[in-house]
Amino acid sequence: MSEHTLLPPVIGVLGAGRAGTAFARTLVKAGFEVDICSTRPPRALRHHLKIYAPGAVAVIAEDVAARTREHENGLVILAVPQEDLDDVEPEWVAGCVLVDATNAWQDEVLPGWLQAAADEQLPTSLAVAGHFSGSRVVKALNHVSHGEFDDAADRDLPLDQRRALGAAGDDGAARGLVMMLIEAMGFDPVSLGPLAAGRILEPDGPLFNRPVRRDDLLPFAR
């Protein structure tokens, strides 16, 4: 990871479901340490991780950002169902760059603050950023199926031959850091501009779960 010296050596992952463990596997393969949590206590989560994310460390939710926060640029991936976001305390990730890898599904009962944004047809990440106001939120990692994530990530390929992933965020430095992470994980990162631009990455958008390249994403950049 010498080419990505701004990245913390430890990444936090909030959520140990299929998406969270896919991110964790890819991060561990890329040389990062991963602290991951779920609604289960760490002792109950360890066996699950041995199967689905070997090398990741189970922690309590309150400590998911503790080690990554020790570095200048703490970084946590938010990978819990949107219907469960009220179970995540904003102070757990305060001061960190928070990668919003969540998606809105039609059958979910959303928290009131998130449903209000959906009713106004706003990008959900804007509401996530408002709720987690102590973090710098970047929308990314949500438009690749967790079932394809391992195979889609390929650090051995040149950038222009990798699958492209978009990143949108109002804080340019935070967006740049997440793009470094995307590259380190084995993808080609593309800046889409401000957080609102992340709407095109959502399930009803033109890029969701499509094996896109950089040229497919650039027309949507702001």
Describe this structure in words.
This protein has 222 residues and is an alpha/beta fold. The protein has a domain at 7-158: NAD(P)-binding Rossmann-like Domain (Rossmann fold). It has helices at residues 18-29, 42-52, 112-119, 124-131, 146-152, 172-185, 214-217; strands spanning 10-14, 33-37, 57-58, 75-78, 97-100, 136-140, 164-168, 188-193. The chain has an eight-stranded mixed beta sheet with strand order 3-2-1-4-5-6-7-8, sandwiched between helices. Strand 7 (164-168), helix 6 (172-185) and strand 8 form a beta-alpha-beta unit. Helix 1 runs parallel beside helix 5 (146-152) and helix 3 (112-119) runs antiparallel to helix 4.
Number of strands: 8
Which radius of gyration do the C-alpha atoms yield?
Answer: 16 Å
Arithmetic mean of pLDDT: 94
- The CATH class label of the domain at 7-158 is Alpha Beta
Which CATH architecture of the domain at 7-158? 3-Layer(aba) Sandwich
Shape: globular
**Adjacency order of strands in the biggest sheet:** 3-2-1-4-5-6-7-8
Tell me the name of the CATH homologous superfamily of the domain at 7-158: NAD(P)-binding Rossmann-like Domain
Task: Using the coordinates shown, work out and report the CATH topology of the domain at 7-158.
Answer: Rossmann fold
Specify the number of helices. Answer: 7
> Cα distance, first to last residue?
29 Å
Which runs of at least 5 residues are low in confidence (pLDDT < 50)? none
N-to-C order of helices and strands:
EHEHEEEHHEHEHEH
* Main sheet: strands, sense, barrel: 8 strands, mixed
Provide the helix percentage. 25-40%
Strand content: 15-25%
Content-based structural category: alpha/beta
